[in-house]
Amino acid sequence: MRHDRMTPMSHVRMAILENQHGHFEAALSHAERAIRARQGGAVPYLCAAFAAAQLTGNDSALTWLDQALIVEPSNCLALGARANLLRELNRAGDGLGNSRHWVAVEPDNGAAHLCLAQLHQALGLDEEAVQGYSRAVDLLPHPAEALTDFAILLLELGRRDTGVQMIERALAADRTFAAAWYTHAEIKTFAANDPDLDEMESLLLLSSQQNQPRAIRDTILLRYALAKAVSRHGLARRATN
Asked: How many domains does the chain have?
């Protein structure tokens, strides 16, 4: 499709599609055309931010998110994306306002409470984080990430029994969630024939055969989890090779 024959909203749709297919330069080009036409509200800025993050890094993505929130100050996708990005940039304090705004706009959105809890935890506001994780776990339809982060915080606070319960709930919610297995391996005593080890090995095999970012991250986490289980308990397993 030739660009000069496309409407501004067609550029918005193409920016979304190009991002989904990993064509980030094309996505950014389409997003910029929609932005110049002042069409699509915050959406083309969000598309530009996602593409820019892949092409040039988080700082440029942050610039696009700032502009998205000028256009739509209460856009929840932009609020959440900016808050999470600032946390990744070790600027959690700068993202608190965005995250609190998101919770105020969507008080029953579990992702909003998870975002705020993660920021509070990064800032050492532990009790506020506990409250946020509790709310997120109750609201999210797929709470494995919230349960895992909650478990890590509780373990750090010395609340081991509750932390163990949270990680067990995380694995019950999603047996493929590698971060939960990683934390599970930190706290469990394994027997040589433990079926959990076999399950981690199977997940490791599957993730190592894929090349998506999540699969690469999962492979690293599962390798470390198995290595911990073996080294801490002296088990003779070969799947960590």
From this structure: 3
Check the CA dihedral 162-167-173-179 and report its sign. Answer: positive
| Cβ pair 89, 120 in contact under 8 A | no
Each residue's pLDDT tens digit, 105-136: 999 999 999 999 999 999 999 999 999 999 99
Q: Are 11 and 33 in contact (CB under 8 A)?
A: yes
Candidates 51, 37, 86; CA nearest to 66 is: 86
Q: Say if residue 82 is in the same domain as residue 62.
A: no
Buried b (16+ CB within 10 A) or exposed e, 140-170: beebbbbbbbbbbbbbeeeeeeebbebbbbb
Q: What is the pTM of this model?
A: 0.88
Rounded distance, CA 79 to CA 99, Å?
A: 6
- Token digits of residue 33: 């055309």
* Alpha carbon distance 13, 60 (integer Å): 22
Are residues 101 and 61 part of one domain?
no
Domain closes at, from 9, 44, 72: 72
pLDDT in tens, 23-62: 999 999 999 999 999 989 999 999 999 999 999 989 999 9
Q: 110-122 vs 92-105: helix axis angle to the nearest 10?
A: 160
* Contact partners, residue 241, CB within 8 Å, separation at least 6: none
CA separation for the pair 218, 178 (Å, rounded): 5
CATH of the domain at 141: 1.25.40.10
Range of the domain at 132: 74-170
For 72: left if phi > 0, alpha if psi spans -120 to 50, otherwise beta; the answer is beta
Distance CA 175, CA 168 (A): 10
